[in-house]
Amino acid sequence: QVQLIESGGGLVKAGASLRLSCAASGRDSSYYAMGWFRQASGKEREFVAAINWGGDYGRYVDSVKGRFTISRPNAKNTVYLQMNDLKPEDTAVYYCAAGGSITDLRYWGQGTQVTVSS
């Protein structure tokens, strides 16, 4: 079992930046791929970004490419999502996820709210 704790959400204006953090704990947590999903009010949860356990391969949804960066320094059990040039459409609850691979993220955090005002 893996426990995921997110932090770093908040209320910002369009064009600002935020950095989300997710710390994983539990058995073998350093060997899991990790990622971020988001769910806006009234919408389905969507994939945002993910990174492999080694920290050297990342994947992004098209809408955040060039603005968001996922990282995992030293391939440890903390992952970051640097979000730049935020837009109102980025407003959502952001969830950290972990699993055996980028396509198998099955453990979830509680979520952190990101609100971007225009």
Radius of gyration based on Cα positions = 13 Å
Counted beta strands = 11
Give the ordered list of helices and strands. EEEEEEEEEEE
Shape verdict? globular
| Biggest beta-sheet profile | 7 strands, mixed
N-to-C span: 40 Å
Number of helices: 0
Low-confidence stretches: none
Beta strand %? over 45%
Q: Structural class of the helix and strand makeup?
A: mainly beta
Calculate the mean pLDDT score and round it. Answer: 94
How much helicity do the residues have? under 10%
Notes on the structure:
- The chain is mostly beta strands.
- The chain is built from no helices and 11 strands.
- The strands form 2 sheets. Strands 2, 4, 5, 6, 9, 10 and 11 form a 7-stranded mixed β-sheet that branches. The chain has a 4-stranded antiparallel β-sheet with strand order 1-3-8-7, with no helix packed on it.
- Strand 4 and strand 5 form a beta hairpin.
- The chain starts with a strand and ends with a strand.
- The relative contact order is 0.32.
- The mean pLDDT is 94.
Give the topology, please:
Layout: E1 2-7, E2 10-13, E3 18-26, E4 33-39, E5 46-51, E6 58-60, E7 68-71, E8 78-83, E9 92-101, E10 104-108, E11 112-117
Parallel strand pairs: 2-11
Antiparallel strand pairs: 1-3, 3-8, 4-5, 4-9, 5-6, 7-8, 9-10, 9-11
